Design the sequence.
């Protein structure tokens, strides 16, 4: 691949962006929300409905062998699969930018989840009621790392509507986990879902308002981790 | 450009043969981690003004701490620096240059060490966002 | 300056990284976790290290915690069973071997986080990223050598299992460990620390290992259960509290003398428990990437033994020391496939003893091995020799693996005639 002229080889460059992109003296605070769920559940649609840029995609090539399976066979280098992660961006203020990352749903991609979850506000678990089990790995994962999450039932036209309570029961969710019925194609319901998640994250964040400065500065002294991150080894 | 790191205080010196008192977490390594840039997917980076291709001093780069000789000549590095004339997130660099995320992280780390790009903090680093940030996100979303 | 990329931040990867760094190599470490995440995460191992492995760390100036960690001066062995005329579970075999040099365990959460900090402070590049094949494909062309030192995760599948060196195709034990504070000393030798192994025939083994963890001195209660047996009950536990409860119930039932000193224990922290199982395997050390680039496997990525003989960290340290010598001796010559295989075989020359011994101990214990374990109770030299085999398992070659050499050794050691247990 030729990287000689980056902008020319970047067909999906969103083009001139918000003003903060060109003021290099400072950067907005950046934060993110994870959109998880099974294949075809509407993660990219969800991201695209609210993103100010056409969703971008980053890809990783993995071997096709399962992580915990020792299948006694050679894994030729050709046995690889490409995992894509689509993401979008919302400028919430001149100094605040929110990223939405749609992550692949299968459990064997946990190593990518660890990466995208680091520092995240929380997760939206998108659910298709016709394939409820597809979201189990995501629920297990976010519960194990205590990441705040909400369940968003993406209602597909022509399918039966299930009450949030029925979904909650089917997924054995704790009573305090919000369940929303929405439509990933409709911006308003996507924003409502995000609002519910951030509200949920606030409920689960310790009380005292920190005096941390959110105006970004070049990376300075690190702070201790607050823990709570998933541990891939578990 | 790397963060100024305090000296390592690895525990040493006289200790009881059988320490019985509990030690506070973290104190065994003298406190918190001191690693430089943790490049999250959403971390912003930008090229420093005099770091554009062709304008850097190759000698200075070669002598820079951690700088690999002439690495600035690599086409990938030029591409990253070109793209980062504007503020970009790490994920954007990966997606727009179609470069694997790990490669982007390695290149950006090198470039930051060489003083050719600036890494902006995210305000909350790798922990969870705090209430103040969440409140701001909430009001930002309400305005959409 | 030669550029080397090391993927993985465990014992082997970081020991090698710090060793290469000290010799002037340009080293990048790719870790899927930050030092703080490692520190506040879950325990990873029992990480027992014996004299030779500790010496390697000391030689590299990496023994930051040597003064703080408890020193195990002995290795105790017991066999649980019945004794005629005595009620309850007893110890028909019970002895302790003295180690020529002490053994130590430093919680890898403490050690790896501290080593990563040291590596970064000494000018090393730490890249926090969960490496995928596509990353390595690109980076292999831009480094003189790429080492994969991640014993878990999908990159391991780059290395083909070697069936000739891997007799087992299924896990041989179910593992469950807990780090605890408040364990009392063993009544027989309250004045010094020792690591203790109890064999519970038909059930599995229990290790009790003194360690240094994030909150100071602690002990590790480590069950190795035969799959499907009464100790293989940790897969569905709900949370660390229940994990410890089950651990203690099994202690009370099968090893009451260890339970007796564990009645007041508490977990060191919420990440203090670990359960799992894996298949012991030896792999082809050379991995080929889609682009044709080569990577060399390190430590657990290429030789992983069951932790029954507590050799994991020990072996990782030996692998790192061996590879470090091979890399330095290579000078400016290319790190090609032939060199990679040669470097691995040099490590395998010592690692094969660990694998053979561990795989032997995993299987049904033959009469001559039981006789040796019995004999050690009546002969301190035999006990000491077995204990020191944990530092250098090549010594077992001389007397452990067949009845003839075991018998010859026991008569040479003037061991009173002993039957099997």
Sequence:
């Amino acid at each position: 691949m030729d990287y000689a002229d980056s902008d020319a080889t970047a067909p999906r460059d969103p083009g001139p962006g918000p003003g903060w992109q060109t003021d290099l003296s400072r950067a907005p605070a950046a934060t993110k929300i994870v959109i998880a769920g099974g294949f075809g559940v509407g993660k990219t649609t969800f991201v695209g409905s609210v993103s100010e840029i056409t969703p971008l995609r980053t890809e990783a090539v993995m071997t096709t062998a399962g992580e915990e399976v020792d299948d006694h066979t050679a894994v030729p280098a050709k046995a690889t699969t490409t995992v894509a992660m689509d993401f979008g961006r919302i400028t919430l203020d001149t100094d605040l930018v929110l990223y939405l990352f749609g992550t692949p749903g299968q459990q064997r991609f946990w190593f990518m989840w660890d990466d995208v979850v680091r520092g995240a506000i929380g997760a939206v678990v998108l659910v298709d009621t016709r394939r409820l089990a597809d979201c189990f790995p995501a629920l297990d994962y976010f519960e194990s790392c205590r990441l705040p999450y909400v369940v968003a039932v993406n209602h597909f036209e022509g399918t039966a509507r299930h009450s949030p309570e029925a979904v909650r029961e089917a997924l054995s969710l704790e009573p305090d986990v919000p369940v929303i019925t929405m439509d990933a194609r409709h911006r308003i319901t996507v924003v409502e879902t995000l609002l519910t998640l951030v509200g949920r994250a606030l409920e689960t964040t310790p009380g005292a308002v920190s005096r941390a400065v959110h105006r970004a500065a070049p990376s300075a002294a690190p702070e201790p981790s607050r823990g709570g991150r998933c541990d891939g080894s578990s | 450009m790397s963060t100024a790191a305090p000296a390592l205080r690895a525990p040493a010196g006289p200790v009881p043969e059988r320490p019985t008192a509990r030690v506070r977490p973290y104190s065994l390594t003298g406190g918190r981690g001191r690693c430089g840039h943790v490049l999250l997917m959403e971390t912003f980076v930008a090229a420093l003004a005099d770091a554009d291709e062709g304008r850097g001093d190759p000698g200075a780069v070669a002598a820079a701490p951690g700088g690999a000789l002439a690495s600035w000549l690599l086409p990938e590095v030029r591409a990253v620096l070109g793209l980062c004339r504007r503020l970009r997130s790490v994920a954007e660099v990966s997606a727009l240059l179609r470069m694997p995320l790990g490669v982007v992280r390695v290149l950006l780390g090198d470039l930051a060490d060489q003083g050719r790009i600036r890494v902006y903090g995210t305000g909350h680093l790798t922990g969870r966002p705090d209430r103040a940030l969440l409140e701001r996100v909430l009001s930002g979303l309400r305005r959409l | 300056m030669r550029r080397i990329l090391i993927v993985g931040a465990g014992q082997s990867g970081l020991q090698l990284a710090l060793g290469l760094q000290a010799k002037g190599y340009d080293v990048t470490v790719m870790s899927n976790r930050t030092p703080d995440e490692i520190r506040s995460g879950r325990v990873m191992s029992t990480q027992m290290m014996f004299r030779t492995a500790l010496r390697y760390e000391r030689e590299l100036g990496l023994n930051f915690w040597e003064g703080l960690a408890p020193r195990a001066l002995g290795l105790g062995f017991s066999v649980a069973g019945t004794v005629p005329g005595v009620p309850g579970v007893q110890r028909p075999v019970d002895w302790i071997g003295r180690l020529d040099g002490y053994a130590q365990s430093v919680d890898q959460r403490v050690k790896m986080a501290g080593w990563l900090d040291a590596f970064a402070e000494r000018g090393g590049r730490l890249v926090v990223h969960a490496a995928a094949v596509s990353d390595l494909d690109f980076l292999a062309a831009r480094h003189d050598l790429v080492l994969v030192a991640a014993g878990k995760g999908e990159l391991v599948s780059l290395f083909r299992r070697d069936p000739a060196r891997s007799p087992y195709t299924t896990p041989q034990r179910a593992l469950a460990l807990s780090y605890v504070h408040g364990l009392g000393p063993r009544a027989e030798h309250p004045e010094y620390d020792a690591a203790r192994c109890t064999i519970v025939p038909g059930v599995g083994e229990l290790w009790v290992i003194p360690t240094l963890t994030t909150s100071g001195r602690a002990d590790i209660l480590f069950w190795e259960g035969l799959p499907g047996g009464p100790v293989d009950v940790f897969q569905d536990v709900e949370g660390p509290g229940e994990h410890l409860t089950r651990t203690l119930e099994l202690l009370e039932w099968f090893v009451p003398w260890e339970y007796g000193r564990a009645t007041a224990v508490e977990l060191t922290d919420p990440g203090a428990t670990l359960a799992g199982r894996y298949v012991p395997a030896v792999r082809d050390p050379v991995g080929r990437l889609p682009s044709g680039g080569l990577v060399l496997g390190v430590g657990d990525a290429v030789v992983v033994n069951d932790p029954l003989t507590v050799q994991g960290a020990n072996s990782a340290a030996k692998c790192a020391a061996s590879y470090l010598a091979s890399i330095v001796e290579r000078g400016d010559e290319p790190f090609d496939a032939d060199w990679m295989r040669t470097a691995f075989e040099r490590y395998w020359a010592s690692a094969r003893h660990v694998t053979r011994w561990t795989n032997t101990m995993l299987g049904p214990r033959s009469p001559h091995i039981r006789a040796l374990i019995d004999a050690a109770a009546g002969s301190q030299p035999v006990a000491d020799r077995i204990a020191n085999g944990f530092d250098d398992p090549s010594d077992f070659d001389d007397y452990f693996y067949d009845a003839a050499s075991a018998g010859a050794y026991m008569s040479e050691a003037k061991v009173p005639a002993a039957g099997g247990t």
Summary: Chain B touches chain A through 66 residues (CB under 8 Å). The beta strands of chain B are 44-47, 88-89, 117-119.
